[in-house]
Each structure stands twice: as structure tokens, then as C-alpha cells.
Design a protein that fits this description.
Blueprint (H helix, E strand, L loop, with lengths): L4 E9 L5 E10 L4 E5 L6 H8 L7 E6 L2 E2 L4 H6 L1 E4 L11 H11 L4 H14 L15 H13 L5 E5 L7 H16 L3 E6 L2 H7 L2 E6 L2 E7 H6 L3 H8 L4
Parallel strand pairs: 3-8, 3-9, 6-7, 7-8
Antiparallel strand pairs: 1-2, 1-4, 4-5, 9-10
The chain binds adenosine-5'-diphosphate (ADP) and magnesium ion.
Length: 240
């Protein structure tokens, strides 16, 4: 079976000389739901930025369902959807237009784009808001809008960067239900989070990143069995 995501020896030095990634390697298997945990500044968003070609890497390689992002950029892009940590849509654009426009970027024709936008806006409970300007939405709705936008081309791999940060517990749980269903229907998911309970609830595997390096990767069950939770949570809340 083709690996869903293969990351090899990623290094990133930002202009200014700061080395954010010091050789990150990990594989994600199809159908997995993987948590990427690590304290603030560990390098999670940088890793995701490189996987999704939004950040230039210094060295290393990324392959998505067998497509090297440097060689087969468009095919790799079709396999992946991303929900970034920061809101990155035009706040003055209408909700429906944001999702339809994104479908256009993936080469979907107008009719399919409109159908997919309707399908995913309904799934994320935003259909009623389609003619409203995105700035009118609550924080949770904006996050859901980015999920609808990330799914419009029906990618095999969905990556979410701290999708529940600052979202209240009730909304967080409803988002969990949605992601569980999506994973059950076959979508591979990677989620970065600060909340261990969230990773524990949702994910089957875990990768822990600290100071630009993977310090642990494996099954969630085994990880939890050998864990001193209190110390670990304190460590996660540490800012570098
Ligand atoms: P995380 O998502 O785990 O909180 P990031 O990947 O955002 O961590 O950041 C990793 C490190 O790289 C941090 O020390 C951060 O300050 C630094 N960094 C992130 N983006 C930039 C940038 N554009 N220029 C310089 N340094 C950056
Ligand atoms: Mg981040």
C-alpha cells in the first residue's frame, strides 16, 4: 500500500538564521488519524507549511500518496487539504464564494464546484451563511469554513493545524465527531494540537516534536501506557 505521507529529513532555516527544523522524518499510513503534539515553537506549523508547499524547505523531501511535491506538484496538491492555524481567507468575501473559488483552484468545473461547495457547507453547518461576508462569522464558524474549503476537492489526506485552539469545549466535541466520521469514511487525518485529551480521544498514532526534531513516534495506546501525564502536559504548555 502506498504511504499516505512520507517526510524525509526535513530541515528549515528561516532567513535570519534560525533553524526551526533539524531533520524531521516520519511516515503516515493510509486511514491513520495521527496527532502531532509539541510545545509552542516546536516546529509543527513549519512542518505543515512545507508539506503543503506554503513554506520553502531548506532540504529534505515530502511525498504524498507516492507523489513527490517537488516533482509532481499538482498531483500531490490534489491529494491534500489543509486547515491552517491562522484564518487566511478574505474576510470581506462571501462564505459560499470562498469555498467555490477554492474548488476552481483545483480545476473543478463551475457546476462541480457549486455542488461540492453546497455539500461541504451543509456538512459543516454553514449553508445558511453562504451569502454572508466571512467577517460576520463566529470564530468556530470561521474554523468550519476553512474545513469546508479544505475538503472541496475531496483530498485523501487532511491536515489540520490546531483547529480547536480557542474553541470552547462543546464546539470542540462537535468538531471531534465530524473528524471521526471523516476518518471512518477513509480520509487520512493529521492534527496538531496542544490538548493531550484531544489527541487521546481522536488519534491512533502520535508524533511528538520538540525543538525541530521528532522525539517520539508510534501508537497512541503504547504512548499513553508509559506516560506520566502531569509532567507531559506541563511540558506541552512550555513556550520555547
Ligand atoms: P509551532 O507551530 O510548533 O508552534 P512554528 O513552526 O510556528 O512552531 O515555529 C517554529 C520556530 O520557528 C519558532 O521558534 C518560530 O518563532 C520560528 N519561526 C516560524 N516562522 C518563522 C518565520 N517566518 N521567520 C523566522 N522564524 C520563524
Ligand atoms: Mg503552530
Amino acid at each position: 500500500m502506498t504511504t499516505a505521507l512520507s517526510v524525509k529529513d526535513l530541515c528549515k532555516t528561516y532567513s535570519g538564521g534560525f533553524q526551526a527544523l533539524k531533520g524531521i522524518s516520519f511516515d503516515v499510513q493510509p486511514g491513520d488519524f495521527m496527532a502531532m503534539l509539541g510545545p509552542n515553537g516546536a516546529g509543527k506549523s513549519t512542518t505543515i507549511g512545507i508539506i503543503t508547499s506554503l513554506v520553502n524547505k531548506t532540504s529534505g523531501s515530502v511525498s504524498i500518496y507516492g507523489c513527490d511535491v517537488d516533482v509532481d506538484f499538482f498531483a500531490a496538491k490534489m491529494h491534500i487539504g489543509v486547515v491552517p492555524q491562522e484564518f487566511n481567507f478574505n474576510q470581506f468575501e462571501k462564505v459560499g464564494d470562498i469555498v467555490r473559488t477554492q474548488a476552481g483552484y483545483y480545476g473543478l468545473d463551475k457546476r462541480t464546484a457549486a455542488e461540492r461547495a453546497e455539500k461541504y457547507l451543509k456538512l459543516l453547518d454553514l449553508w445558511e451563511k453562504r451569502d454572508e461576508s466571512a467577517r460576520m462569522l463566529s470564530g468556530g464558524m470561521k474554523r468550519r469554513l476553512m474545513i469546508a474549503r479544505a475538503l472541496v476537492h475531496e483530498p485523501k489526506l487532511l491536515i489540520l493545524d490546531e483547529p480547536t485552539a480557542g474553541v470552547d469545549i462543546e464546539l470542540r466535541r462537535s468538531m471531534w465527531g465530524f473528524l471521526e466520521q471523516l476518518n471512518a469514511s477513509g480520509t487520512t487525518i493529521i492534527l496538531t494540537t496542544h490538548y493531550l485529551e484531544e489527541a487521546e480521544h481522536l488519534c491512533r498514532t502520535i508524533a511528538i516534536i520538540d525543538q525541530g526534531q521528532i522525539i517520539h513516534q508510534g501508537s497512541m495506546k503504547k504512548f499513553l501506557a508509559g506516560l506520566d501525564k502531569e509532567t507531559f502536559i506541563l511540558d506541552l504548555e512550555r513556550d520555547i
